[in-house]
Model the fold of this input.
Amino acid sequence: MCPVVWGIWFSLSSILLWGAPEVNTSWWYMGAMGSRVICDNIPGLISQQRRLCHKHPDVMQSIGAGIKDWIRECQHQFSHHRWNCNTIDRDHNLFGRVILRSSMEAAFVYAISSAGVVFAVTRACSQGELSSCSCDPKKKGSTKDNKGNFDWGGCSDNVNYGIRYARAFIDAKDRKEKDARALMNLHNNRSGRKAVKRFLKLECKCHGVSGSCSVRTCWLAMADFRKTGDYLRRKYSGAIQVVMNQDGTGFTVANKKFKKPTKSDLVYFENSPDYCITDREAGSLGTAGRVCNRTSRSMDSCEVMCCGRGYDTSHVMRMTKCECKFQWCCAVRCRDCHETVDVHTCKAPKNADWLDQT
Done:
């Protein structure tokens, strides 16, 4: 096993294996291992997923490396919210029981994780790290856009391969289950995959005398994953609550006033908890001790974040760069300055109505 893969396996397995509770095991846990041995030993995978894992161990490595990226993006998108996409130590599915609830948060996690696999696999294809794919083979010859004719060149990201692999691997288990939650997962997985392709952009290089664009060579490239994260975060805000239709083959809106979900929308069945207090059954860690913004009027405000319980204020010394001056040539010299700032953190519940619900 190469050092990078071993590092991924050891760090995550040491966190997750010891004392992991018996909940639905997710490919999120398996993907980070990047090892054929783990493909055999991890619980929860169906035969098709194991076959793909054994057949393409290099793809598993790219998925494992990409897991950290989409979790980081999820946490960026919700950093100022009561639910902050926190991962749970010693849990097989990384997110604890919050994923077992068919909520908006579960919908977002499934979508962003599916998008993350597409992005990671496609990137690995373009970088020549996978034996089963490379640059998009269909981007050959000449074509034109609104700026005129151009030749395909460079390395167009093979996003269609990333989508096909993500669909085959991620969707396999839910296609087999065929229950209401499986249909929800499949829908949100597809929404995530579509989001990556939505932000493909044409990049070009000009050729000609004195830098003129008499000839252009162009390729398709994925945008930074932040664009996908921002887009799915907006879809989360507009997620549509649904119920199963009468024949059990699809969805209908729970409230007739809302529009029917498109393939790009996120869907969910159950209302979310308020995430104010620790509730292990609901997967809520509560907001006690969370940092809040006393002057904000948004989701990170102390009033919203602390659920009306109030907050504590502490004085914290931090070091910053100050009195920066440009020196010829070519450096900026700064002094290290210390300043005291107020940090506000949410109070813990005090009365019986706020007891830890277990």
Remarks:
- The chain has two domains: 3-272, 291-354.
- The mean pLDDT is 85.
- The longest helix spans residues 104-126.
